[in-house]
Amino acid sequence: MPNKPTRRRDTTVLTTRFTETFNVKHPVVQGGMQWVGTAELAAAVSKGGGLGLITALTQSSPEGLVAEIKRCGELTDGPFGVNLTILPTIKPVPYDEYREAIVESGVRIVETAGSNPAPHMPYFTEHGVKVIHKCTSVRHAVKAQDAGVDAISIDGFECAGHPGEDDIPGLVLIPAAAEKITIPMLASGGLADGRGLAAALALGADGINMGTRFLCTQESPIHHSIKEAIVAASELDTELIFRTLRNTARVASNAASRETVAILDGGGEFGDVQHLVNGQRGRTVYESGDPEAGIWSVGMAQGLIRDIPSATDLVGRIVAEAEEIVTGRLSRILGRS
Prior knowledge:
Layout: H1 17-22, E1 28-30, H2 39-47, E2 52-55, H3 62-75, E3 80-86, H4 95-104, E4 109-114, H5 121-126, E5 130-135, H6 138-147, E6 151-155, H7 170-178, E7 185-188, H8 194-203, E8 208-210, H9 212-215, H10 224-232, E9 238-241, E10 249-252, H11 255-265, H12 270-277, H13 279-288, H14 311-333
Parallel strand pairs: 1-8, 2-3, 3-4, 4-5, 5-6, 6-7, 7-8
Antiparallel strand pairs: 9-10
């Protein structure tokens, strides 16, 4: 059964263009998550054979990022990368300094998200850094491919955070992108177990990127009560905020998110909800364990999560489940058992 502890089979290997290009054992990536992508979580994923990601802007300075990268390297011998989300902000972020901190620390895998990665590609290419760009539409994936990135992470409507404005779920988005993308591609959004990995591979992806599922692991640096809230929630327990502002975000359903939706649907503007969506309130959720303390991101995949495992064990479990689906159930359907 999905999400039930199973014996890890370390001999299981699913070789894809992603694993070959990025030199990782398993085609499973931990998404970059603000306040969550720390050294402990990234290292645990990498120890399981997946690709863990430190979130650069979780660190308050480039110097802090250097220290976090060093700490991760002390926790794992496996490959890990850094997420660098590039977005317009009220307070300017020294992206060039963060970029230099990544390279000078010896990291050679970066996940970019948000804005067009093209301005950063010459620097990363010059220093031998492989870039995965996360996007929410086929047109943006093609644009990133043309800019020279090494892989695409295509994020479906089911995802936590920003799903874009096209509302295309993974079942359509993944194969649509696969028809246009010639470099390795990860499926993201709505994925939590081996069924999702097997399905993503069948749809044309070369691996999966998961945020919500890794949010709910032992090494995730959020309060245990929030992990329990994810386990207890269903796929129905999210809200889409900022729809009227054309900046849609999927977050947990609570009093703050429901009030935000009601105000904006009633003609309100951002200033009318700013007190509700303050980022510091969201961070308080993770620190205090109170799911009502503010807005916090979670995807529809929470409806598939039943436990809080080690991230290391989770990677192996997902791969073993996917192998069983491909060589077991599907093989029996084909009459080749």
